[in-house]
Request: fold
Amino acid sequence: MNRLIIDRSKPGALAVKFPASHDQGLLCRRLLESFGREVGVPEEEGSTLQLVTSELLTNAIDHGGGGGARNFKDLEVDVPLQASLSVDSCGWVLEVTDKGGGDPEELRPFLELDVLPDLEDERGRGFFLLAQSVESLTVEESPAGDGLTFRAERRYAGGDEA
Reply:
């Protein structure tokens, strides 16, 4: 995979497949954030969308099979990642799927809000902070079974339930 693939076939949704490098992740993030503004994510919600998008994409690039490549030309293997953003009048849902294997059961404890993360541990603090920013943050095995899918859901204050 040597380019971004953009899918706008579903109303209120944008899906992007991209090579697992930070430069391509930045392009993907900008596309998702721009799309969010275009379809009505309120301005005051933009910083939360930006934070969650940035963190989930960075994690996928660093730990999801791409080896944290800074630039596309640094990728040693073809590792496509996928991100999708769905927006409605009540909020948004962001999904990021990687190809890095992994066990969702090992990561679920880091997504729980009722347990503070170990500040000495290198893992989990970012997920804990993300979980504080959204109504729901989950992890499952990817549909292809070769990675993980993180799903973040944010509902707007005062929004009707979808």
Summary: The radius of gyration is 15 Å. The domain at 5-155 is CATH 3.30.565.10 (Heat Shock Protein 90). The beta strands are 5-7, 13-19, 80-88, 91-97, 136-141, 148-155. The longest strand covers residues 80-88.
